[in-house]
């Protein structure tokens, strides 16, 4: 199927009202930087697998092979509850992880925006965490910790996979747009590691033990007019694709992920691509469909529409597949691969760690557009395109600041490819 098969006319009639995102005085989003004491190098993980009698020897062998090919480096972290044997699977441990990650990120966010934002100004909180869904909710925990107003609207999304971060942004945008007056929305994205390990023998579900790591992000959104002129980024486009009506979306991720990406690009492409690229693609379709030309369909050059790519760091196979499909260079996917290497798969927050990386490298400039691509269970593919609206600090303080001079690193070892999964007869049912 061609990635942009649907009509290109939508480009001329669709308009999304942009909203200001964040505040210029410092970062308008913040990512949690775990403590060095939470590091889980490959050797440590393998030792834990071997010592934990809840895993069968065959599972340990499989986990070892996958972890060594995962593209995750020695600085990725897991919560305290996972460092002990046996792992602490209590609700208390899960809440401790959430508080550690989100309270830190939110405190950092408001510390750097304190001159123009206050927690009591927040009108909406939207949190997303797929596996851990406590009562009171995550959003309520944050509202209590930071003493937000009694009229704050709280929403907690669960079970929506690694693409839920952009879904949370979309929900926050819709709620803000439907409210009387203006306000701020706080989006919280993370995944709970504590208490969610898998000890069975199904290989596809064991994958999550290898890839997921500790992390989270807090993002401040605004529709206040006074923030528009000083906003750091502006949301230009947000496109959601959900293939949940297809039964195979629940059991064949590798195949369905490609379908979801094609469908998402088919909607997003006409909204952001220059007319020259749209014309080239349309002409290639005419040649193939009408003139019966044997030529392949033209793949639009998305680098003419956006300057930076933040692809969900779900695994090297995911990043490599999108790199190949969109004709991207190593430089284009550097932020994604380095985020996976340093932080692991932090689920929905990975696209924010990638934007942190780009900012820490000093690569994002006024007028640049950033394309965030998220994938998640269901199966869902979501895209957000942000435009940089101000001149950023050359080296802002963020989760990458202390080590950014060490990156990028040269990745070595085998890659986890689709063929590797097939060779192990894995039916992919796990979330990305």
TrEMBL record:
- Identify the keywords attached in UniProt to this record, alphabetized: Acyltransferase, Transferase
The EC category is: transferase
Q: Which domain of life is it from?
A: Eukaryota
Instruction: Give a Gene Ontology cellular component term annotated to this protein.
Output: membrane
GO annotation terms (biological process):
fatty acid biosynthetic process
Stated family: Belongs to the thiolase-like superfamily. Chalcone/stilbene synthases family.
Q: Please report the name of this protein according to its UniProt entry.
A: 3-ketoacyl-CoA synthase
